[in-house]
Amino acid sequence: MWLVTGATGFVGYSFLRAWSQKSERPPLRLLVRDPTHPVLQPYLGQVEVVRGTLADPLLLIEAAKGADTILHLAATISFLPRARAWMYKTNVEGTRHLVNAALEVGVKRFVYLSSIAALGRPKDPREPISEGTLWEDSPYNTHYGYTKYLGEKEVWRGGEEGLEVLVFNPGIILGPYISWEKGSPAFFRMVWRGLPLYPVGTNGFVGVQDVVEALFTGLAHYPTGWGARYVLVAENWRYQQLFTEIARALGKKPPRFPLPKQVAVSVGWAMEYLGQWLGLPAATTRETARTSSADFLYDGSKITRTWPFQYTPLQTVIKETAKLFLASYARSR
Predict the structure, then answer these.
(1) Is residue 196 part of a domain?
(2) Does pLDDT of 280 surpass 70?
(3) 276 located within any domain
(4) What is the pLDDT of residues 287-301, one digit of tens each?
(5) Which residue has better confidence, 237 or 331?
């Protein structure tokens, strides 16, 4: 049996859809905050649902009993200063509790969904970031990335204490979700409504179906390639290219004007300030402004050399996601 956290999230949504289409499906136990979440409705009766959070060590021990594998997909993602304590509690302490629970009850395998934000920054910006790029302090690190880095350390510690571990570091994940209001699915909503500006940086991107397939591929080939981390990046694109391709797929005008870094950071600071005092979500922050204005290249080829795995071209990911967006969000407006 597999114990899965984060099943109602962005990756969890696609994970459940892929699992339901497998000819051989391992039994699933899902740890969720809200058992009535709409993501779960198609699978009720097919999976076991446990209500709880990563903040409850005793509940995690009970949830882990009988599982031979844990897939830890849950995380808190935010770039707002007011969310930093909560991110640490979820991404670091929650991961620690889950690793301890796995060790306590004798779970065999532990798969952790990390992030490229948890990787280091190369001294030479022309050098691609890979699994071996060590973490170091940098103005381009985010607090979210730091909590994922610390969460990884908890997983590696579990590996030293007897767990078989596997870590994935996906880039910015593109794909559909039940909501187009936040995260990368919101890129499609933003472009649909009209996006005149684009960040000037470069980043690594990957389709959500590829992330899910990497999870299944790693598990299917156990123990080959375990005890390691894998960067999941299909292609490195400039944000201008990303938003232009989304606009084309949606039949909208692409953004025309670059957003200089200094302007982006100033806007991020202002939105953080207003968000703090008005209690509103910030569309951008100083952290997102800095990172989206810089050029980062990633090498996601290790997984293709380890297992039979191929990435989906980003243009294909965007076209397929745009079709789903147009059939759901756009049609309802």
Answers:
(1) no
(2) no
(3) no
(4) 888 888 889 999 999
(5) 237
User: Does residue 265 lie in a domain region?
Assistant: no
Which tokens sit at 42? 């198609």
Mean pLDDT of the chain: 94
Phi, psi of 282 (to 5 degrees): -95, 130
pTM of the predicted structure, to 2 decimals: 0.95
The pLDDT tens digits of the residues spanning 36-67 come to 999 999 999 999 999 999 999 999 999 999 99
On the question of pLDDT at 143 being above 90, the answer is: yes
Structure tokens at 128: 């691609």
CATH number of the domain to which 47 belongs: 3.40.50.720
Q: Specify if 244 maps to a domain.
A: no
Say if CB 174 and CB 313 are below 8 A apart.
Answer: no
Distance between CA 253 and CA 192 in Å, rounded?
9
Number of domains in the chain: 1
What is the rounded distance in angstroms from the CA atom of residue 105 to the CA atom of residue 59? 12
> Residue written as tokens 């397929």?
320
Output phi, psi for 8, to 5 deg: -95, 0
Phi, psi (5° rounding) for residue 69?
-140, 140
Residues 6+ apart with CB under 8 A from 298: 116, 119, 128, 129, 130, 171, 203, 204, 231, 233, 236
Which structural domain, as residue segments, surrounds residue 20?
A: 2-176+203-235
Q: Strand 235-238 vs strand 202-207: parallel, antiparallel, or unpaired?
A: antiparallel
